[in-house]
Write a structure and sequence with these properties.
This protein is an alpha/beta fold. It is built from 14 helices and twelve strands. It has helices at about 15-30, 45-50, 55-65, 75-80, 90-100, 125, 165-180, 195-205, 220-230, 240-250, 290-305, 310-325, 330, 340-350; strands spanning about 1-10, 35-40, 70-75, 105-110, 130-135, 145-150, 155, 185-190, 215-220, 235-240, 260-265, 270-275.
């Protein structure tokens, strides 16, 4: 297979972890006789510095004309610390999601046998956890009307959803649940929010199309509690943009490190694959960042092209690296810590 993949390294540790995912992807491609054409493009603070725009038209053209997008991270502290900044790296991410139609963020949460003791939760609570949260990505409060009034002393952000936005995400959730444990949980705040009531009635109306899937409905605050009490109770979860943003970060620590969890953002034409961690600017350029989430995001990419053996090979070599202690400083504790680039080299060599 020949794949054209847009490569958006972004900011902070993004370029370093992306480099390792490229090494591993190239090694897999060579092993299984595929061809990957990487198409680098600017985004985030790097793009602002270069052209004054966090998601330039040229970058969008490259992404839109690729088979997939592999993305690193976005963000820089000089923008975080300047509330008056009118152009921000994160605006590029929102623009990219909207222009590419990336409506569903797919975030798996699972445990690694060799790292089970590193989780802040008890082993018996998390062992065997394997869930997916589908976060709606192009609607809700992040894209609703926002403004200030009363001389800047009052601010508002609006959570708006249309039925079709809920339906397309829910359909993806139902289809995923059919292939897994046939359990779907709709997470909302329907006791308070009108937008959540629309979520609930929309999903309820779709249940008859998927009689084999058992559907539950839970309030987001209750899920936030149960997710750390008994994560194995969940399989596929669907939720709004803001709720999903919070819950997926909460779920990520179940595995023991945010540096381990991959994700994808699915659109109708092209999908994007990225680690769930941020740009971690304190570590940028130091060759110490954990690249495994980005490498596992590449595995999700291969899997979505039905290259399941290739994806399994990546996951197997990642598990092997963890079991043998070929890890960066965030996981090394008292053992030897390997550099980001050394982990990437080891993974590629051991495929």
């Amino acid at each position: 297979m020949k794949l054209n993949i847009a490569l958006l390294a972004g900011d902070g540790i993004g370029p370093e972890v992306i480099d390792q995912a490229v090494k591993v992807s190239n090694a897999v491609a060579a092993k299984y006789h595929h061809e990957i054409n990487w198409k680098p493009a600017l985004t985030g603070a790097a793009a602002i510095d270069a052209v004054g725009e966090p998601y330039p038209d040229e970058t969008h053209a490259i992404c839109a004309n690729s088979d997939a997008v592999l993305f690193g991270a976005i963000g820089h502290p000089r923008f975080d610390n300047d509330p008056s900044a009118t152009v921000r790296p994160e605006q590029g991410l929102l623009k990219m999601r909207q222009k590419l139609g990336l409506f569903a963020n797919v975030r798996p949460t699972f445990t690694f046998p060799s790292l089970i003791e590193k989780s802040p939760l008890k082993k018996e609570r998390i062992e065997g956890t394997d869930l997916i949260i589908l976060r709606e990505l192009t609607g809700g409060i992040y894209f609703g009307e926002r403004n200030r009034k009363d001389d800047g002393n009052t601010a508002f952000d609006t959570m708006t959803y249309e039925r079709f936005e809920i339906e397309r995400l829910a359909r993806k959730g139902f289809e995923m649940a059919k292939k897994r444990s046939k359990k779907l949980c709709c997470v909302d705040k329907a006791n308070v929010l009108e937008s959540s009531r629309l979520w609930r009635e929309t999903v309820q109306a779709m249940e008859k199309e998927y009689p084999e899937v058992a559907v539950s409905y839970e309030f987001v605050d209750a899920v936030a509690m149960r997710l750390v009490q008994w994560p194995k109770a969940y399989d596929v979860m669907i939720t709004a943009n803001l709720f999903g943003d919070i819950l997926t970060d909460e779920a990520s620590v179940i595995s023991g490190s945010m540096g381990l969890m991959p994700s994808s953002s699915v659109g109708s034409e092209v999908s994007l694959y990225e680690p769930i961690h941020g740009s971690y600017p304190q570590a940028a350029g130091k060759d110490i960042a954990n690249p495994l989430a980005t490498v596992l995001s590449a595995a999700m990419l291969f899997e979505d092209f039905n290259l399941n053996e290739e994806a399994a090979a990546i996951r197997a070599v990642v598990n092997k690296s963890l079991a043998e202690g070929i890890v960066t400083e965030d996981l090394a504790e008292d053992a030897k810590a390997y550099k980001t680039s050394e982990v990437g080299d080891w993974l590629a060599a051991n495929l």
